[in-house]
Design brief:
Length: about 425
């Protein structure tokens, strides 16, 4: 397996191991926190979750990555990244303790969501600093391997953290006090990542001194202009843009699936039992996570056999057909299997989108292209949850939602195929 081989290669570097350890500890903590927020927002015995509340909860979890993403680089390129990796965990830990106190004292939901947004905003800086630090701890010829293994490993560890959160919930209980304890644990674990980061030299991770660097205010203004230039550049590279469009379509449809699944488990499958609902959705998440991992193994071979331009529509169309077959009967067993299918398909498309953007977009536009990528990746997911809030009934059983998802995937596949075929014809 290429993943294991790549991991073995990059782990030979001492500095990479320390940075990698910082990422793993932090994303393990992330898994616990995300489980705590999900449990509190969607499966609390005290709350009667609606599709609108699902949309609001997903917005809290994802919008900081979309809104802050393009702007954090301005500061990541000015402040010591090693210091960010040391200080951010303590700020995040403090905010987590505040969030835990708000939950334990039954504070109004807006106060909780504001504190959670603060936690995730700090985390966005932390993850951006990790990504910008990577080239400083691996040789150039190993950077591709490092880029391949670090996000996948982080995602797997996040799923493991969520699983540990599930086990801790059984110990602490599903009350508000139990959720507060989960957040405290997450804050303590995240603080440990600062201890790992402290083992690295202050200047090891950059940034390098640049006397010609613009002032922060000018740089922030340039971000907006740069995003517009990046979008124009992407449009001129139709294969990269179309693959990014395919990923955006998947994220929208996957967001609808998420909202649908949460409400179905919360009410239709479990008659409102929050603990049973959380166990059910936990199984779906685990199956989806396994699908993500399988996509890492399958996609390199599939793209070599079929090419990206053929594998993307195969993955999308398969996701639509199988989702219809598995979800339309509205049987509980179908959703974990559908989660696995969508995990494989979605991660396959994401890997192809990463590769297409890196392959086709000029290097000077890559940062802006990936900023647009992040905004679409999370923004479309939140938009889908908002649409689902408008169409889902109280118990979640919606044939209309399943039809939109099942038809949307093949339509996205056909659109992608049409664009890439015309692009290839123009090149010829």
């Amino acid at each position: 397996m290429s993943f294991v081989a790549d991991l073995r290669v990059v782990l030979q570097g001492r500095d990479f191991r320390r940075l990698f350890g910082t990422r793993l500890v932090s994303q393990f903590s992330d898994g616990i926190f995300q489980f705590a927020v999900t449990g509190f927002a969607f499966f609390s015995p005290e709350n009667q979750t609606t599709a609108l509340e699902v949309a609001a909860g997903l917005a809290v979890l994802l919008l900081p990555y979309s809104v802050l993403g393009p702007f954090v680089g301005v500061f990541i390129d000015r402040w010591s990244r090693r210091q960010i990796l040391m200080i951010a965990p303590f700020i995040r830990g403090l905010l987590l303790f505040v969030t835990a106190a708000l939950v334990a004292t039954d504070a109004p939901d807006p106060a909780f969501y504001a504190a959670a947004l603060g936690v995730l905003g700090v985390n966005r800086f932390f993850l951006a600093a990790l990504g910008a630090s990577l080239p400083h701890v691996v040789p150039a010829d190993r950077l591709m391997a490092a880029n391949a293994v670090t996000p996948t490993s982080g995602t797997v560890v996040t799923f493991i953290g969520a699983g540990v959160g599930f086990l801790l919930r059984d110990i602490f209980g599903g009350s508000d006090f139990g959720v507060a304890l989960l957040m405290v644990v997450s804050g303590v674990v995240f603080g440990l990542s600062a201890l790992v980061a402290r083992t690295m030299g202050r200047r090891l991770l950059g940034p390098s001194d640049d006397p010609d660097r613009p002032q922060a205010r000018e740089a922030l203004r340039n971000v907006v202009v740069g995003l517009a230039d990046g979008a124009k550049h992407l449009v001129r590279h139709r294969r990269a843009a179309s693959t990014l469009g395919a990923l955006a379509a998947h994220r929208f449809l996957y967001g609808m699936c998420t909202a649908l699944g949460i409400i179905l488990y919360r009410y239709y499958f479990t008659d409102g039992d929050p603990d049973a609902a959380l166990r059910g959705i936990g199984l779906v998440v685990a199956a989806s996570g396994f699908g993500y991992f399988m996509a890492v193994i399958i996609t390199p071979y599939a793209t070599e056999r079929f090419t990206i331009e053929r594998w993307v529509p195969i993955a999308l169309a398969s996701a639509g057909v199988l989702t219809a077959a598995l979800v339309l009967p509205f049987q509980e067993w179908g959703l974990p299997v559908a989660g696995f299918v969508l995990g494989v398909a979605g991660q396959s498309v994401k890997i192809c989108a990463d590769t297409a953007v890196q392959r086709d977009v000029e290097d000077i536009y890559l940062g802006r292209a990936f900023s647009i990528y992040d905004m679409l990746f999370n923004g479309m997911y939140v938009l889908a949850a908002a649409v689902a809030a408008a169409i889902l009934p109280a118990d979640g059983k919606s044939y209309l939602a399943v039809v939109i998802i099942s038809v949307g995937y093949p339509v996205a596949a056909l659109a992608y195929r049409a664009v890439t075929s015309s692009s290839r014809a123009q090149v010829v």
